[in-house]
Structure formats: structure tokens, C-alpha cells
Amino acid sequence: MNPIVGVVVSLLLLSAPAQAQIAVKLGVLTDLSGPYADLSGEGSAIAARMAIEDFKAAEKGISATVVSADHQNKPDIGGAIARRWFDQEDVDVILDVANSGVALAVAQLAKDRDRIFLASGTASSDLTGKACSPNTIHWTYDTYALSHGTGRALMQAGGDSWFFMTADYALGHALERDTTAVILAAGGRVAGSVRHPLNTSDFSSFLLQAQAAHVKIVALANAGADTINAIKQAGEFGVNANGTKLAALLAFITDIHSLGLKTAQGLILTEAFYWDLNDGTREFSKRFAERANGRAPSQIHAGAYSATIHYLKAVEALKSKAALPVIAKMKAMPTDDPLFGKGSIREDGRKMHPMYLFEVKKPEESKAPWDYYKLLATIPAEEAFRPLAEGNCPFVSK
Length: 398
Description:
Elements: H1 3-15, E1 22-30, H2 41-55, E2 62-70, H3 75-88, E3 93-96, H4 100-113, E4 116-119, E5 136-138, H5 143-156, E6 161-167, H6 170-185, E7 189-196, H7 204-212, E8 217-221, H8 225-237, E9 245-248, H9 253-259, H10 261-264, E10 268-271, H11 279-291, H12 299-318, H13 323-332, E11 335-337, E12 341-345, E13 351-352, E14 355-360, E15 373-379, H14 381-384
Helix pairs in contact: 2-12, 3-4, 5-6, 8-9, 12-13
């Protein structure tokens, strides 16, 4: 080659732009200031950023950023944020949404805008049922898995009469509905229920109605600060004095931390994740705590991490962020990460992995900070989640 030509070619190669990266933006739509802030909140944004770092997205041709916003547990506010993110701010994926009413609105918007919703914090099983969408994957847990885990265990232990204290919005309604189905199928009875507003501070009238029902199980179909306040006030009212047990149908390790083991001991609960399950969960949780003021991650935080990792794998494989192709790739690839292990994503968008039945330790059984749970049972994915054929998801092939 002519020396001059060689120099020119070398200069052109040096001046050529680096290979273009795929730019993806993930929006963590969460509760930053209300009853679910501890169990979701900023922790979900921390977990998503950890996933991007651990995946080494930049080295794999993906420029990934995370933004977050507070939906204030109001579907209209959450919907407005999602609409702005999709229409004006180039957000490709929405994560978390630990409020079922907000999540149902976001799922519809993601479908309308051809974007992706990874419901890593949402409970309602309607997201893979009547409200399922080809643009949504329901990641961590749902009301079917919670009701069948905790409800079945308490029924088998003789808790055959129930009264519900239910948060009056989509989450509470779904928890009560799915748990009632378990109770009735096992020959139990539901004596009644009462519905309370979200973020209730005074449960006295609701607890008096529960006591008057004379049942074996008072079921809390709520979450976050509502669960914490209800359990504390139930103790003050002596609900447990006559052998009645409280069932926390959706409880998180952050709730147990707020309650303290003296108050929470003996509670039976179902979760998808616990920081002390294995070496992988412990390693992640140690790094998370360093960024989260020493707090252990909740199952919602773990779900945000796991969902982000799998999403990035699909984008890398396709070299594209187009919504429906990425969703299809996520469903086609087995899931595998240190927090949930190996799993899969069903046609209806249900992420499949084991669930775990825990009992809260007595104070004297706890040996370290956040050492709160005893593992009672591992529930295989196919038993934990509603069978595909029973969900009536409109786009699932019959």
C-alpha cells in the first residue's frame, strides 16, 4: 500500500465514531413518600442501578439510565407520569409500581404506547388475568401466590374461620378475593369483611368488628404502613388474647423491621425473596445495604434488580430495544440471576420462580440484624402461581 494512502486510512479509522450504543431509559415509578416507601421507594431505583452496573451494560453496547418518580399511590398521578415519560422523555421501560391501582393504569398506557412494563412491585394477579397485556411482565409475586401460600398454610393448621380487614383499592380487593377462594375450596368460611382507606392511622373500629366476628383468623389484606399499624393496634386491642391469629397476607421484611420481633413474632407470611436464603442473596444484600443506609432489600427491590438484568440480556441479544420483540425474547430466554435462581416467563407474562413460606422468629432466635425469618416451606413455581389456563388472559392461545 502507498505509504500516504496508509496514513490517510489510519487517520480515518481513528477519527471514526465509536460503535453506537443502544440507549435505554428505565423509569422506576414508585412510592417515595407514602405507606410503601420502605418496601419499594428509592430502594427499587438503587436495585435497578446495581443491575445495570453488574451487567456491565456499557461494555455490552447498552447505555442504560434510571429515573424515578413518586406516584403518590394515585392512579391519575401515576398515569400522568407514565404518559409524560413515554411521550416526552423517551422512557422505554417502567419498573416497580407498588400500587395495584396505579399499575393497572400503567399497563394500559404501556400497551397503547408500545413500551414495556415490568411490574416488579405490583401485587394484583389481574395483571396476568383479565388485565393482562403483551407489553407487561409480572415479576416478583402476586395475590394468587400470597393467598395460596399463607392462606393454605393457615387452613392446614386449623384456621378455618376468617374475617378480612381490607385496603379499599385494587390490591386489597384482589388479596381478599384470591384468599377467599382458597378458604372456601378447603372447606373454611369467611364470616365477614370490612374495608378501610389506604394509609389509615386508626384501625380501632375495624378491629372491633373483627373481634365481634369471633373467628380464628383475622386477615390483613393490605400492605406497608397499613399492615404495620393494624398489627400494632391489634396487639393493643388484645385480638390475640382468645386464640385469634393475625394473617398478614402481604408483609415485607421492612414491615417486620418496623414492628420489631417482640410484636411480629409468630407471623406466617409468603415472600419471593429473603436476603439470607443463600450465598447469592447474601452477597447482593450486603452491597444493597451499603447503598441503602444499612437496610436489607425487600422482595420488591430484588424484583427490580432481577427484572432489569433479564431485560438487559434481551436487549443485548437482539441489539434492539423495540418493545414487543424484547418482550418476546425475554419470554423465550430462561431467567437466571443470583436472587431468584433459574426460572422462566410464561406466555401471559407471569415470571415463574419458587415462593417461600416463612415464620417470623422470636426475639431470642434472632442472631444478627435483619435475621427475622424461619423458612417453613419452599413452594415450587407451578404450585405457587395460578395455572395459565385459569387466568383467562385474552391473548393467551387456548
